[in-house]
Design brief:
By secondary structure, this protein is an alpha/beta fold. The chain contains twelve helices and 13 strands. The chain binds zinc ion. The site of zinc ion has 3 residues, from β1.
Length: 342
């Protein structure tokens, strides 16, 4: 049985809206490679990740990602920047990092990042980077030393001795910001400004449009964001064209990079929607909307994201070179830089 199948609704969205937008060469800046076994919580079968990690996606290899892309973006050649899945409540960091390093061995143009915990020493991080060939760090807010994944500051989950390693070797940092307002938060902006100046060779990728699932965080942080050196942005899992438009207008297409958030987010059916100062994942299983007046089915998060990217590209007037840069060249260049910096 295939891992993923298109419905007639998916097929129509791909054919009518997306097939002429997605270029032939894709470099996906945000993908997860992991094994369910690396989630070491004994209660995991009843835990929150089980809703996302569905049968067939318990061992996500580079080949599984290829298979997903073959179905969702037929005919495209896809390279990837990949990193482990940051399971909270029990995560085998060493296993995760060994696994991703082994997976990337046979994909020389793709690259992997090391999952880091704030308690890891500078020596340990440096030695792991050296021995695995990984080209950057993937911290995550659920590992915050404060125990508060919602309000923690960047250095609570990525201490400066680890940023120092990234700076010394010109490594990437895949940063999913914390705090309710994301990049619209003054504390995050203050911290990023200081850290990007103090560690000028570290290369920050601010995930999910700098965690702006709608436009207001970017609009609020825009002027300061624009001037921050060494920051790039991936579009993974953001489904609102306003957010993408605001990002493209603020920082320019040369710093914006396509990412899918596969697996699991991009391949799930649903959409991130925003309202007020909130955003949430809407899926076929978690709503009670009355949809009797229309086709009630949902498509892949990835397709909703690509629709948003296409509308934003139209809104700001991107040409085909810009679109190719956003889907491939920008992250490719960044990875070459990260490799050369060592
Ligand atoms: Zn992700």
């Amino acid at each position: 049985m295939p891992l993923l199948e298109l419905t007639d609704l998916d097929q129509r969205i791909w054919d009518e809206e997306l097939a002429d937008f997605v270029p032939e060469q894709v470099f996906d800046a945000h993908t997860h490679i992991y094994r369910w076994a690396f989630h070491t919580d004994p209660e995991k079968e009843n835990g929150p990740y089980r809703r996302f990690v569905k049968p067939g996606f318990e061992d996500v290899t580079f080949d599984v990602l290829d298979e997903c892309d073959r179905v969702l973006m037929p005919g495209r050649h896809v390279e990837r920047l990949s990193f482990p899945f940051p399971f909270s409540n029990g995560c085998d960091f060493e296993g995760s990092n060994k696994f991703i390093a082994a997976q990337m061995q046979s994909h020389a143009n793709s690259a992997g990042l090391m999952l880091v915990h704030p308690e890891m020493t500078e020596e340990h991080v440096e030695e792991t980077i050296r021995s695995t060939g990984l080209i950057g760090l993937k911290p995550y807010r659920v590992f915050s030393s404060t125990g508060d994944a919602v309000h923690c500051r960047i250095t609570d989950f990525l201490p400066e001795h680890q940023i120092n390693v990234a700076d010394r070797h010109g490594l990437l940092i895949m940063m999913h910001l914390s705090r309710p307002d994301g990049i619209g938060d003054a504390q995050n902006l203050d911290d990023l400004e200081r850290l990007t100046q103090q560690y000028p060779s570290a290369k920050w990728i601010l995930a999910h449009c700098a965690r702006s699932y709608s436009s207001w965080p970017i609009e609020r942080g825009g002027d300061r964001l624009r001037d921050m050196p060494n920051t790039w942005f991936d579009t993974s899992s953001v489904c609102e064209s306003d957010a993408m438009t605001a990002l493209l207008r603020t920082v320019g297409v040369e710093r914006v990079m396509y990412g899918s958030d596969d697996v699991p987010v991009g391949i799930l059916r649903g959409k991130y929607v925003s309202f007020g100062y909130a955003w949430a994942y809407l899926s076929e299983e978690n709503h009670s909307l009355n949809l009797t007046h229309c086709d009630p089915r949902m498509t892949f998060t990835r397709y909703e994201q690509l629709r948003a990217m296409k509308r934003a590209a139209d809104a700001v007037g991107l040409n085909s070179d810009d679109i190719r840069a956003m889907f491939h060249d920008n992250v490719r260049r960044l990875i070459v830089q990260a490799r050369g910096g060592r």
